[in-house]
Amino acid sequence: MATAEATLEEAPKKRSKKPFLIGLLLALVLGGGGFYATFSGLLLGGSEGHAEKDHGPGPLSGVAFVPLETIVVSLGPDSGSRHLRFTAQLEVADSAAADVATLSPRILDVINSYLRAIDTASIEDPHAMARLRAQMLRRIQVVTGEGRVRNLLITEFVLN
Predict the structure, then answer these.
(1) pLDDT tens-digit map of 78-104
(2) Three-point CA angle 86, 89, 95, nearest 5°
(3) Rounded distance, CA 63 to CA 149, Å?
């Protein structure tokens, strides 16, 4: 009897695979159901995304771009560069394009005055571009009036 008890103690009990298979099956069913609900638009507004893909983007309207003349600013003697060449375009509402084009001499004056007044280290810092753009855009919006100029797009900013 001692040998029968020893063999019972040595043989480990085999665990059932039934809970594992049920969990795996539930995970697959729930995952598939979640994918279908999201893809079909039942969750997270997925049907709106499909409408845009099927029809493509709508026509671009209400936007116009007003190019500004190139400005060359001489930098101080303490600068590593001698000149700054600056070119930009203004993103405006369609209805305001003619008004903004008429005000372009004032806009150029404001930009030129700002670029000459700031420290040359600020111009040469590559991380300062966003701050410079925001400062110039705000000054342009003051000159043109609120709601006319949406954005300043810098197309050329060259130090030489």
Answers:
(1) 777 889 999 999 999 999 999 999 999
(2) 155
(3) 10
Cα dist from 135 to 38, 111, 151, whole Å? 43, 9, 11
User: Which range marks the domain in which residue 101 is found?
Assistant: 63-159
Global confidence as pTM: 0.62
3-state secondary structure at position 141 = helix
pLDDT at 4 over 70: no
Domain membership of residue 146 (yes or no) is: yes
In a domain, 26, yes or no: yes
Structure tokens at 111: 């930009």
How many domains does the chain divide into?
Answer: 2
* pLDDT tens string 103-130: 999 999 999 999 998 888 888 888 889 9
Buried b / exposed e across 22-59, counting CB within 10 Å, b at 16+? eeeeeeeeeeeeeeeeeeeeeeeeeeeeeeeeeeeeee
Same domain, 128 and 99: yes
pLDDT in tens, 149-159: 999 999 999 98
Same domain as 26, residue 99: no
Residue 126 C-beta-side C-alpha neighbours within 13 Å = 0
Q: How many CB atoms lie within 10 A of CB 97?
A: 16
